[in-house]
Design goal:
Elements lengths: L8 H10 L3 E7 L2 E13 L3 H12 L5 E6 L2 E8 L4 H17 L4 E2 L1
Antiparallel strand pairs: 1-2, 2-4, 2-5, 3-4
Length: 107
């Protein structure tokens, strides 16, 4: 079985339509091989709300860095062609988590 090494135009369009924040496309040999999705939140409530949000989000996707600096939380998510479906499922879970944390976070 051949490993998928680049995004198809359809996958790219789906990913970029689903993600409503910043991203970086990373190329190799003229093909888009990975995408770094980023999203930031401002903490407007108690720190416990922010910490709960961070812990919950970290459990939703395998390839992610979450940082908190001052009152800003930033998610950096790495997406490769073979993780497209996992990432799209993560987007749905993230939207639910954002709604659950809306009193303490501003995206």
């Amino acid at each position: 079985m051949n490993k998928i090494t680049a995004f198809t135009p359809k996958h790219l369009q789906n990913l970029l339509n689903e993600w409503e924040s910043d991203y970086k496309l990373k190329t190799h040999d003229g093909e888009i091989r990975s995408i770094e999705m980023t999203k930031s939140y401002e903490v407007s409530g108690p720190i416990t709300t922010a910490n709960t949000f961070i812990i919950n989000v970290c459990r939703m996707y395998k390839y992610m860095t979450v940082s908190k600096q001052g009152s800003t939380i930033t998610l950096s998510i790495s997406v490769k062609p073979e993780t497209v479906d996992d990432f799209l499922a993560f987007c749905n879970k993230l939207q639910l988590q954002e709604k659950a944390s809306k009193d303490g976070l501003i995206s």
